[in-house]
Amino acid sequence: MDHHYDPQQTNDYMQPEEDWDRDLLLDPAWEKQQRKTFTAWCNSHLRKAGTQIENIEEDFRDGLKLMLLLEVISGERLAKPERGKMRVHKISNVNKALDFIASKGVKLVSIGAEGKETMVEILRPAHFALFCLSHSWKDGLGFCALIHRHRPELIDYGKLRKDDPLTNLNTAFDVAEKYLDIPKMLDAEDIIGTLRPDEKAIMTYVSCYYHAFSGAQKAETAANRICKVLAVNQENEQLMEDYEKLASDLLEWIRRTIPWLENRAPENTMQAMQQKLEDFRDYRRLHKPPKVQEKCQLEINFNTLQTKLRLSNRPAFMPSEGKMVSDINNAWGGLEQAEKGYEEWLLNEIRRLERLDHLAEKFRQKASIHESWTDGKEAMLQQKDYETATLSEIKALLKKHEAFESDLAAHQDRVEQIAAIAQELNELDYYDSPSVNARCQKICDQWDNLGALTQKRREALERTEKLLETIDQLYLEYAKRAAPFNNWMEGAMEDLQDTFIVHTIEEIQGLTTAHEQFKATLPDADKERQAILGIHNEVSKIVQTYHVNMAGTNPYTTITPQEINGKWEHVRQLVPRRDQALMEEHARQQQNERLRKQFGAQANVIGPWIQTKMEVQLFSFSFSFLACQSKFHLTCRSHEYSNNTAPLSFSCFSLSVPGMPWQLSFLGCDHSGTLGPEEFKACLISLGYDIGNDAQGEAEFARIMSIVDPNRMGVVTFQAFIDFMSRETADTDTADQVMASFKILAGDKNYITVDELRRELPPDQAEYCIARMAPYNGRDAVPGALDYMSFSTALYGESDL
After folding, report:
1. Which end of the chain has fewer CB atoms within 10 angstroms, the N or the C?
2. Per-residue pLDDT tens for 521-555?
3. What is the pLDDT of residues 44-92, one digit of tens each?
4. Residue pair 555/475 in contact by the 8 Å Cβ criterion
5. Of 444, 401, 440, whose CA–CA distance to 422 is shortest?
6. Mean predicted confidence (pLDDT) in 761-788
7. How far apart are CA 477 and CA 176, in angstroms?
């Protein structure tokens, strides 16, 4: 839907305010109050330049003080004024001032250097929002609330009375003049005696509160920034000192330990070698682990320090010569190499002395394990449990026997190891060789007997398996065919008894077609039933002929022929019942279809009327600015209205960005979630960006568009807008920001004094700055002046700090 701006509607809305302003212009008291208020406001700024005015219209007539006032307010230099006394010189100066005001985006309608407009009209603030001024300011509570909010110690707000506006106003004006350096621009009697105070005069006075409080907030922010930067710098210096000390201690310990590990003097006794081994174990268990932890902590401290320096824009830390992490790793590698060689030497020496005892103990352990495994195996292989077993039990016995054969083959390696150890002991003339040989011979003989019994049992199990396999195959065939046929019958019974819910004739016709297809499969199903029953009869014949001992029923299924016959009869009974239900439902759906057609015809008549009403409602949405929010958030609401012929939709998005003075709300009619170039430009202007229609403004806007629309698609997505605003409002400390903060604390001087540092910063950080700041040697230096600029630069460059 298209939205059009209606100028007549806006004029009607603003008409009462314009009538009220015209009435005030005819009121001499109001005009006097205007001159007094704006004269005081101008003097509050001109005092910074060492001058003031008495008559706002006469003193600004030559344009000199008007240009000076604009320079003080904006902080910028205007064009050089004309110093002549002629009328043409005065008009030229006034025009320069008006041109400067217009360059800042302030529209001057019907105002010129030769016009009859009063200077009060020219200097009125252009962008104050009007907020319920007639009551909150008139009784004085609004002014007192402003002061109490920022300086609660100056006014006890709880003791103020709403019915005493004169006392409230005088209290606020006196406190503001005495403690906040805000001149009295208003008289309490004038405000109380006026039916409706002048909003512009009051808002001009309120703006002085804003400047007073914002200055204090800037000083506090500057002090906080400096504290944060100094705290980071102090923490980094402590980490550097800790790293140097820890690295020195670790390198010294490595230097002392390596010679001990490189000592290879052998010992003659086992006891002495055991003592060396015990000392080495104490080293690895008690002495080395803490050093490993120190080494890890050292690397963690180094990496943490480098990360902090990088994130705070400081230069990387360079340890002393020989104390780099790589130097420590190289020294540690030498320690590990010496430790490895020492350990291998100790083990080789101990193995050399313990070889004979170790071989004997190894033989005894392996022999005991083997004898424990063979216990009872011969009796198991001689059992005849297969003679009365079923086929499934025979197969289980065969699998169990195969597992035993695998286990037997696995133990072959142990038997060979036992024989090899016994042979080695004989070659080394072990003192107890006869007993070792006797035990080894017994193990070998038993092993041969187990192999013969294993082969005999396998042959017996295979003969029994063949006898029962034919019957088992028939049982399995019966189970394979009975199970799916039984499932088919159960599914058929469920389908035939299932309650169906349909809404159209097509649905009931589909059910009827499916039912007819099901009935066509019944003859084939009956043939399958008879084949399954035939398999069961064949099994019974084999059991009777060969007198096979068959314990229990079919092991593969619990479905009996009786169950199959019973379910088959039930299916045959349910088929005609389903036929009758489908016929009745088909008749009901035919009746419903007639009713739906009647409803559709009436709905098509009322649909266009509903669409017209909805379009009128959607046309009433407009574009507005909202107040600044404390943190970034996004709200999206979507609504859609539609009828059967014309869908209507709109979307509304609201965006606020921390640090920006406005919150933007906009309405998109295309439902795309994107902004066109002109819409995006309007958003930037509303957020405070200086993007005019001149060449400089167009160049700046083109630069921003290249960031949010790099592919030149001609639109700005919502995510691209969020990313751009996040980058614009990011707060990263730099040397320039720290110098600017020090300059605020120094009162815009190029140096700072000891007293100012101690007054604005915490004691420890103030002393830190005093100890490290160099004396200031500029022309405007005073005794004890310190150079904060070189100090701020050193924080982010090469320095001994």
Report:
1. N
2. 989 998 998 999 888 888 878 777 766 666 667 88
3. 778 888 888 888 778 888 888 888 888 887 778 888 888 777 777 888 8
4. yes
5. 440
6. 89
7. 105
**What average pLDDT is seen over the chain?**
77
Backbone φ, ψ for residue 626 (5° rounding): -120, 170
Q: Is the pTM of this model over 0.90?
A: no
| Distance from C-alpha of 204 to C-alpha of 200, rounded to nearest angstrom | 6
Residue 564 in contact with residue 535, Cβ under 8 Å? Answer: no
Show the tokens assigned to 572.
Answer: 């045959």
Write down the pLDDT at residue 549: 66
> Considering all CA atoms of the chain, what is the largest pairwise distance in Å, rounded to the nearest integer?
145
Distance CA 202, CA 284 (A): 82
The pLDDT value recorded for residue 234 is: 81
Stretch (H or E) spanning 621: none
Contact status, residue 623 vs residue 666, Cβ threshold 8 Å: yes
The answer to which of 160-169, 187-196, 335-344, 547-556 has the lowest mean pLDDT is 547-556
Contact 215, 140 (CB under 8 A): no
- Token pair for 387: 């003679």
Q: How many CA atoms lie within 13 A of 216 on its CB side?
A: 11
Reported residue count of the chain is: 801
Q: Which residues pair with 662 in a beta bridge?
A: none
- Buried b / exposed e over 340-375, threshold 16 CB at 10 Å, is eebeeebeebbeeeeeeeebbeebeebbeebeeebe
Cα separation, 796 vs 733, in Å, equals 10
Contacts of 474 (CB under 8 A, 6+ apart): 535, 538, 539, 542
What is the rounded CA–CA span in Å between residue 105 and residue 93?
A: 20
H helices then E strands: how many in the chain? 27, 8
Distance between CA atoms of 488 and 478, rounded to whole angstroms?
15
The answer to whether the CB of 665 falls within 8 A of the CB of 654 is: yes
CA angle 207, 213, 216 (to 5 degrees): 145
Structure token pair of residue 42? 């101008």
Per-residue confidence (pLDDT) for residue 31, from 0 to 100: 66
**Tokens standing for 156?**
């006890």
Q: Cβ(70)–Cβ(100) under 8 Å?
A: yes
Identify residue 504 by its one-letter amino acid code.
T
Place of tokens 């017996």: 460
Please give the share of the chain, as a percent, with pLDDT higher than 70: 79
At residue 665, the 3 state secondary structure works out as strand
- Residue 591 corresponds to which tokens in the numbers above? 């009746």
d(CA 80, CA 520): 107
What CA–CA distance (Å, rounded) separates 254 from 333? 10
For 663, phi then psi, to 5°, come to: -115, 135
**Alpha-carbon distances of 399 from 90, 392, 458, 466, 686, rounded to whole Å:** 118, 11, 10, 15, 85
Outline where DSSP puts E strands in 643-770.
Answer: 647-656, 663-668, 674-675, 716-717
- pLDDT tens for each residue of 464-495: 788 788 888 888 888 899 899 999 989 988 88
- For residues 278 and 272, what is the distance between their CA atoms, to the nearest angstrom? 10
Q: What is the mean pLDDT of residues 507-516?
A: 88
Helix locations, 382-432, DSSP H = 391-410, 412-427
Q: Which of 782, 800, 778, 783 is nearest to 791 (CA)?
A: 800
